[in-house]
């Protein structure tokens, strides 16, 4: 039995990066997100960043073999799925917020995080901040 999904109030701050907010039934939800995050100790930008292919984005992910039979007994006493209020701070990076029923949810997030830090021997050539404290302030 399909039910009607009713939400009186939804307060959401942020939903981003391939995320889904769905009220109501669906057959299938698929979310995908590929993220390249480069963090550097000093501000330095190259025009061709992100154009290379990293294996983390192309390598196949093995599927789980769910061969165990699953028996579910549900008792939905009401034809309405009723929610009074939802306060959602954030949903990010291929996440799903769903009020309703679905058959299949496929979600995938792949992140390549690169940190580039200066060698400790090369810090002498980097300008250092100087703070002068005076009596007046």
Query: What is the average of the pLDDT values?
Result: 83
Structural class by secondary-structure content: mainly beta
What distance separates the N and C termini?
72 Å
Task: Characterize the quaternary organization of these chains.
Answer: single chain
Number of DSSP-assigned strands = 6
Determine the fraction of residues in helical runs and give it as a percent range.
Answer: under 10%
**Rg over C-alpha atoms, rounded to the nearest angstrom:** 24 Å
Can you count the helices? Answer: 1
Bin the strand percentage: 35-45%
Output the helix-strand order: EEEHEEE
The major pleated sheet works out as:
2 strands, parallel
- Overall, the morphology is elongated
Strand order of the largest sheet: 1-4
- Uncertain spans, ≥5 residues at pLDDT below 50? none
Pfam family, one: GerPE
Protein name: Spore germination protein PE
InterPro entries: Spore_germ_GerPE
Organism: Anoxybacteroides tepidamans
What features would you highlight for this structure?
137 residues, two-stranded parallel sheet, 1 helix, two-stranded parallel ribbon, 3% helix
